[in-house]
Amino acid sequence: MPTDSLFQPLAQAGAHTAKTVTVTFNGEPLQVPAGSSVAAALLAAGVKRFRNSPVSGVARAPYCMMGVCFECLLEIDGEPNRQSCLVALEAGMSIRTQDGMRDLLAESHDPATALTQTMEAPHGV
Amino acid sequence: MNNINSNTSDVIVIGGGLVGSAVSYGLARQGARVTLLDEGDQAFRASRGNFGLVWVQGKGYGMTSYARWTRLSAGLWPQLAQALLDDTGVDVHLQQPGGFCFTFSDEEMEERRHRMQSIQDELGGDYPFEMLDRQDVIARVPALGPAVTGASYTPMDGHTNPLKLLRALHAANLKRGVNYISGQSAKNVSTQARAGASLFTVEGRWQAPRVVLAAGLGNRALAEALGLHAPVVPNRGQVLVGERTARFLDYPTLNVRQTDEGTIQLGDSMEEVGFNDNVTTDVLASIAQRGVRTFPVLAGLRLVRAWGALRVMSPDGFPIYQESPKYPGAFVTTCHSGVTLAAAHALRVAPWINGASRPNEIGAFQGDRFLNPNYRPAHAH
């Protein structure tokens, strides 16, 4: 499935002169335009593969950019399956492609995420 | 004229949801010429809102026929799934590993044991189940939360992908030559006697000597006009759908299941709010709380969507199957478990409509039972 960006920055928005910030993308530093969503910033920086479909395994990239299609899922700052078109970009974010499914059982055995669950437990129990 | 001929068939099925399309498929497999009338997208479609369980456990408490009928359908389900795969190439992902109903206190455990034992006794023992304590359950369901005290388990339960089921039934109907008409609501069925039999005309256009009402909540009004009684009302259920995750649950349960594609579904709820299929925050919150209480690993689950849909509920919660005494050839078929009963509808109800004798298990489900002032059903969902 082609994952070329469906979206182009407007020329008058001054894409070439706009302020940029640095994030890490799959562990490597990446300069991206500031002031947009994570999805828009990565598209502008030329990222073509955001995730693999957990059902078919094929590459996927943002489609709707308005929170509906769930094609733009990324792992952001350690949290899997985030809709990157709905997350405001911040300098220094650690961003990874979403490869495969989130694993709830593995996370529950990980001390870092186990803490989150303890904190959230009062809402559920 | 051609126009008249193409509008004439052996059977008209009114309703293209899971009940109507299963009956239609069964009829087409028997060689009947079928016209299937389906309403437009404004219809209340229970078939597109359900949870996907092929569920036997606990059903038919106080109504043994329903336990038998449900069990029969679950037993026929592999045959239906295989037939649909052969006809259409669509795998509806039937899995029948058995299912769990969890308990959260000793009292709930005892109530559950009593219910399951009663049904087993009524069926003469032919109803396998186990009552499991917490450690037994954890061995099979490792994600179990600390609040769960135990569970009932039966090997009879399973689940399927209900959207793929509806798609497969529609594709199979087309392949078998069913004349499928979409966007056609049916409010008007006229009858005329013809050499001892009836001839039914729907919306002044489609004609057949047999007609099947499988119109869900629309059956109520249609039935009256044909000397049948189907006093069904809407009962709203709400469902939460989470992100796809790696497999965390190998079994269907009454309120949480993981689909073949990894999606996590949480239910269920029952509300009598008329023809209103919206969702409400309070009900969704309680569905989420129950799910997290059962499986704490769901606490951080991302939700993808939520929906409400209307069950087709009879006064006692059991199905309605009847041929009209006044207009033989007119049948009503309606239930709230269109997934579980799909196999029985395709492989048992359809042959009955096509002229075979009525399946023994459904004699108790005539709609006329609600006209008897002494009928006191134990309402058992």
Please describe what this structure looks like:
The complex is a heterodimer of chains A (125) and B (381). Chain A has 125 residues and is an alpha+beta fold. Chain A is built from three helices and seven strands. In chain A, a hairpin with a 2-residue loop joins β1 (20-25) and β2. In chain A, the strands form two sheets. In chain A, strands 2-1-7-5-6 form a five-stranded mixed sheet, with helices on one face. A two-stranded antiparallel sheet of chain A has the order 3-4. Chain A has a single domain, classed as Roll (Ubiquitin-like (UB roll)). Chain A has helices at residues 38-44, 104-108, 111-124; strands spanning 20-25, 28-33, 51-52, 59-60, 73-76, 79-83, 94-97. The relative contact order of chain A is 0.18. The model of chain A is unreliable at 114-125 (pLDDT under 50). Chain B is of the alpha+beta class and 381 residues long. Chain B folds into three domains: 2-53 and 163-232 and 316-371, 3-Layer(bba) Sandwich (FAD/NAD(P)-binding domain); 99-155, no CATH class; 234-313, D-Amino Acid Oxidase, Chain A, domain 2 (2-Layer Sandwich), CATH 3.30.9. Chain B has nine helices and 18 strands. In chain B, the strands form five sheets. A six-stranded mixed sheet of chain B has the order 8-2-1-12-18-17, with helices on both faces. Chain B starts with a helix and ends in a 28-residue tail after the last helix. The mean pLDDT of chain B is 94. Chains A and B meet through α2 and α3 of A and α8 of B.
**Molecular shape of chain A:** globular
User: How many distinct domains of chain B?
Assistant: 3
Q: Sheet with the most strands of chain B?
A: 6 strands, mixed
Counted by DSSP, the helix tally of chain A is 3
Number of helices of chain B: 9
What name is given to the CATH topology of chain A? Answer: Ubiquitin-like (UB roll)
What CATH calls the topology of the largest domain in chain B is FAD/NAD(P)-binding domain
CATH superfamily of chain A: 2Fe-2S iron-sulphur cluster binding domain, sarcosine oxidase, alpha subunit, N-terminal domain
Average pLDDT of chain B: 94
Low-confidence stretches of chain A: 114-125
CATH class placement of the largest domain in chain B:
Alpha Beta
Which architecture of chain A would the CATH scheme give at its second level? Roll
CATH architecture of the largest domain in chain B: 3-Layer(bba) Sandwich
Q: Portion of residues in helices of chain A?
A: 10-25%
